[in-house]
Amino acid sequence: MNKWVWLLILVVFFAMGSVALAFDPIPAEDLKIGFVFVGPVGDGGWSYMHDQGRQAIEKAFPGVTTMYAESVPEGPDCARVMEQFVRNGAQLVFATSFGYMDQVIEVAKKYPDVIFMHCSGYKMADNVGLYFGRMYQARYLSGLVAGSMTKSNIIGFPAAHPIPEVIRMINAFTLGARKANPDARVKVVWLYSWFDPGKEKEATKALIDAGADMIGMHADSGSTPQTAEESGVYVIGYNNDMSSYAPTKCLTSSVWDWSTIYVDIIKKVIEGNWKPIDDWWGMDTGIVKLTSFSQDVPEEVKTLVQEEQEKIINGTWDVFWGPIKDQNGNEKIAEGQKMSDQDILSFSWFVEGVEGEIPVSQ
């Protein structure tokens, strides 16, 4: 077979692929969207912020119909909920937790004419796209505050699950803390749950008893900042502005604004421009940010955060640029080098300054 025949085959193949990936425009008044939330929409954290994004869609696109299911466990229940959305007419489904990934792919195969968007995962298909934000950038900045203001040099960190997403956030936070204070240590306690206020409270208390005078967090409720407030210990919030739970002790929070990416995705669907791509937006888009600082944060710390933030936003530097060592002191990223997105998304090791282990199995 000569090269011209092969060329013709390739042209036909890619042409067919482009047809398979095309979705017709869906007028706003005809568009029905389903959201699957891993926690209650009133959790004050992850699911609450996603629901704020859902509501932003309704405001931005009058006529669009949205549906949601809350507190859906990761696993088979997620597939059942998504299929119910489709049977109720949904042409677009957002699955908002990492652990929904395999079920998204499974259900998407059954319904090739429905668009599925999975938050924080890595598996795609002709009708499955991915979306997330570079929260590690805001986490690094919040770490600068924590490292600057700890006196004991021990920062406690209740963390949901030992998956790359959470490991990435702990590492970014620690790099920020140690940029400001090379003696700072971040002690991690695993919760093995996204939303469990009781566990979060117990873990926070245990970390404070172990000497932490500063608390970070990667969990979905307000229990951690509330416990820090009750204990008289500073806390850095996550997901939402946690100052409502810790009015005198929350120094700042790394927060999500999902409306930015949700509105963009819906616009593409309505216009017929949607394609299964992996959107991983940075701080420059506004999807992740820091809340305003507590009055207890010194001006010099605010200035440090502003300087580092400007480097991130203008692209002259990012968090996972070398030199970076692992928690055993081994150089992982040399000076002048930077981690690829693939490596950042698959983090399986802790940076220097983290105290804790990554279990082999959950």
Automatic annotation (TrEMBL):
<dbReference type="InterPro" id="IPR003760">
    <property type="entry name" value="PnrA-like"/>
</dbReference>
<keyword id="KW-0732">Signal</keyword>
<protein>
    <submittedName>
        <fullName>Purine-binding protein</fullName>
    </submittedName>
</protein>
<dbReference type="Pfam" id="PF02608">
    <property type="entry name" value="Bmp"/>
</dbReference>
<feature type="domain" description="ABC transporter substrate-binding protein PnrA-like">
    <location>
        <begin position="32"/>
        <end position="314"/>
    </location>
</feature>
<feature type="signal peptide">
    <location>
        <begin position="1"/>
        <end position="22"/>
    </location>
</feature>
<dbReference type="GO" id="GO:0005886">
    <property type="term" value="C:plasma membrane"/>
</dbReference>
<dbReference type="InterPro" id="IPR052910">
    <property type="entry name" value="ABC-Purine-Binding"/>
</dbReference>
